[in-house]
Amino acid sequence: MDEKRRLLGRSVIGAAVAIALCGAVHAQDTIKIGVVAALEGPFAAGGQDCIRGAELALKEMNGMAGGKKIEFIKGSSDATPDKAVNATRKLVEQDKVQIMIGPLSGDEGIAVKNYSKTQPGVTFINGSSGAQATTLVDPSPNFYRFHTEGAQWMVGLGEHALSKGYKKMYLIAEDYGFPYSQVQGFMASYCAKGGHIVGKSWVPLGTKDYSSVVAKIPNDIDALLVVLGGSDAVNFLTQYEQAGGDKPMVGGTITVDQTVLNFKGKRRESLVGTPSAGPMADVLDTPEWKKFVAGYKANFKDGFPSPSLFAYLYYVSTRSALEGLNAVKGDLSDGQKKYRAALQKLEWNGPAGPVKIDENRNGIGTTYITEVVKNADGSLASKVIKTIPNVTQTLGLSKAEFQKMGLGSRDVPSCP
Amino acid sequence: MTRLWRWLGIAVIAVPVAFFIIWALWDNHPLFLRTLLNGVTLAALYFVVASGFTLVFGLMRNVNLAHGSLYLLGAYLGWVVGQITGSWLLAVAAGFVVAALVGLVLQVGVFRFMPGQDLRQTMFTIGLSIVLADIMLWIWGGEIYQFDPPALIFGKTPMPLIKSYPTYRLVLLATAIVIGFVLWWFLNRTRVGMMIRAGVDDRAMLAASGTNVQMVFAITFAIGAGLAGFGGVVGGTALSISPGEDVRYLLASLVVVIVGGMGSIIGAAFGSLLVGITEQFGLAYAPTYGVVFTFVVMTLVLAFRPQGILGRKA
């Protein structure tokens, strides 16, 4: 009996040592990176494309960065802040990831940024969430966003609308953070250069019946500024058409996407010429973009016909994290000090322009002004007509001027 | 004294509403009239769906929380039929027939075995709606579907004072009025209608007098479910169909039936009008808080008339 017990004791110790050794070896050769995206809920389709973007970035480097093997551990949210924090917390505290990538949408980003302050040993890299406040208000020293955000994506569109002769416009937008930022990005320059937004309709997200909103649109305007997501935009357009509306439209970054371009209403034709803006475009004539699209198509047979905005943003975020690891040869010691210094200095040529960050660790990047054109086969696509490089988070204004304007909200900015 | 209080209560609500109407007419009368018309036509859509719900829930006391799923299922299958045949009218017919068949199966296969057991019915239909929602998401995906109505009823019709109004919404209003009248006539003036009402009041007595009660109930359930599917196609033409619409219309139907009074067709009409008009005025004059008004109306009605505007005391 005694013999048996001793044997058991030895085996346990032996096993423990073996596991400890394995663990140590494991830790030296691999770096764990957590990836959180909204794989459930309203953005589920976009969330899947996020993961494709992240995987593409890793695949291009053959699963290695800084001489070490990279292991992705995925977590899912449903686009609500608490779910995003829970998923992130699980990856950080239970799976002990050293770098976190995510989340997808605006309010989630703010929540994860706040959580990142409690985990100074882990570096957080934003996935695709585009709220202004994440990096502008009370930034976290270990939270990085390598792409630009909602307001930056609309810079230059205001001037473009004016150049088309749209001096008086009416706004229809969803009532939450992301459209506030988008509208600010548009209005900051539009108002300054003499344009007027004569009225605003902030409608609840997911509104189906826009007939009364349409009834409110005044007659003496030149164009509409429509910042609605895919299905809301389609509903609005159909009902506007049924009510006999004929004003041209200017769209937000996610207004004129493939759902809208492919919708089968009779107003489709009138979409031709609709301007919009964003951090990328479906068709860009650069070798970097072509390589990115070719890689996406080759790797993901079940993906979209071309990479979505989400895939692009997660690709940029993940690639930046990996480039940083390459720069320090995978050295995450000393509270990741060297790694973070490398991230701060990082500059590389992304699929849609150079990637770099400012002192708040927010992206400075390119914004593309696009217009809807008709292809030879009758299908609609968006085409780049103007490129605006080096868009900063203060929208090209000085810091003092930007602070005077304040963050975008229902009433800010205003120029009736 | 109580009469005085009642008049006071009515005055507290009516006076601000009257002031608002006068102000809105003076400020911008085309907007006011358009919004009113929008409210009435949206009410028409709500009425089509909710009248089916009031038959099943209000009259037969079957708690069918899968009513919204029947709406969405009818809409999707109607869309498929519309794509294949190219006919909008066939799509509408398909929406009605498919939902009615599913309703028939539900009554004969499930509800027959749990009469009067509210909790079991609730649990079963909630489960069913979740399963159906997932299956529909699996088959039709998250895209937005819209029907193309015939050119005759698309476009706009000239109107006095507000210049023009979408023709389709006027057609929708006319359809709802016809459905409402036919239902009222069916329930109050026909033999089957009498049987339904008798069966609801005293099932055993009706069975004893030689009527096949199960048959009567199956027909009622099928008509109620069919109206949901019909509403799916008609509503999908006016607005659009996508995942999540099932819950929206279930909620709308619940509010309409609670406000209007359970089991009353005229009550459902009143409830739809109140909910539709409130929703549209909220959206036009205070878009941010538009959603709140609907529930304010429901709360007020429940506070002062718990049985609904035209409901009978339980």
The largest interface is: A-B, 32 and 36 residues
Amount of beta strand of chain A: 15-25%
Low-confidence stretches of chain B: none
Tell me how many strands of chain A there are.
Answer: 15
Order of strands in the sheet with the most strands of chain B?
Answer: 1-2
Name the features.
heterodimer, A: 416 residues, alpha/beta, six-stranded mixed β-sheet, 41% helix, B: 314 residues, mainly alpha, two-stranded antiparallel ribbon, 11 helices, 2 strands
Write the layout of secondary structure elements.
The complex is a heterodimer of chains A (416) and B (314).
Chain A: H1 2-29, E1 30-38, H2 44-60, E2 64-65, E3 68-77, H3 81-94, E4 99-101, H4 106-116, E5 123-125, H5 133-136, E6 143-144, H6 157-163, E7 168-174, H7 177-192, E8 196-203, H8 211-216, E9 223-227, H9 230-242, E10 249-251, H10 258-261, E11 275-278, H11 287-299, H12 309-327, H13 333-345, E12 348-350, E13 353-357, E14 363-374, E15 380-391, H14 399-405
Parallel strand pairs in A: 1-3, 1-4, 4-5, 5-6, 7-8, 7-9, 9-10
Antiparallel strand pairs in A: 2-3, 11-14, 12-13, 13-14, 14-15
Helix pairs in contact in A: 2-12, 3-4, 6-7, 12-13
Chain B: H1 2-59, H2 67-85, H3 88-109, H4 118-140, E1 156-159, E2 163-166, H5 167-189, H6 191-201, H7 203-208, H8 213-238, H9 245-260, H10 265-285, H11 290-304
Antiparallel strand pairs in B: 1-2
Helix pairs in contact in B: 1-5, 1-8, 1-9, 1-10, 2-3, 2-4, 2-8, 2-9, 3-8, 5-6, 6-8, 9-10, 10-11
